[in-house]
Amino acid sequence: MRKLSAGDIIEARCTKCREVLNHRIVAMVEEKVVRVECNTCKGTHNYYPPPSVKSPRKVVMKAPAVPRVPKKDPAEAEREEWQSIQLTIENETAFAYDMNGRYRVKHLIQHPVFGIGIVKSVIVPNKMQVLFKDGTKLLRCQKV
Predict the structure, then answer these.
(1) Which residue of 52, 57, 66, 128 is 20 to 30 Å from 27, comparing CA positions?
(2) What are the domain boundaries of the chain?
(3) What is the pTM of this model?
(4) What would the pLDDT profile of 12-27 be if each residue is shown by its tens digit?
């Protein structure tokens, strides 16, 4: 391969034409091309080599998709949980629900609208999740 020198023609990306075109070498530093002049638009600019040709990607075969198992309906899960807990509930030990009352997890409460429920979690500030026959409800309470 012949050594490049000032005045030779090479391909470069033109900053005005925005294409890879023939350019004349204007300036070099040692063996490196630094400035070129476009033969089409006569614009002089730094040398930008043409983009390299990318090799084609290898095709990776994916494993066959596993069919999705539908998630259990949350309401159905709550009903099943209520059914299992209902057998162990003693209605006489339930506290009457009071918005200003203090409750702990697994306390039984008697709500005037929702009926008997069990405290699932106490959430700060002043909230608790209670599982009733109709599902989980968020109720107000005092901090423990």
Answers:
(1) 52
(2) 9-46, 74-140
(3) 0.49
(4) 999 999 899 999 999 9
Phi, psi of 56 (to 5 degrees): -65, 145
With H, G, I as helix, E, B as strand and everything else as coil, classify residue 6: coil
Question: Which string of DSSP letters, residue by residue, matches 21-80?
Answer: EEEEEEEEETTEEEEEEETTT--EEE--PPPPPPPPPPPPPPPPPPPPPPPPPHHHHHHH
Long-range contacts of 99-103 (CB under 8 A, 24+ apart): 99/139, 99/140, 99/141, 100/141, 100/142, 101/141, 101/142, 102/141, 102/142, 102/143, 102/144, 103/128, 103/141, 103/144
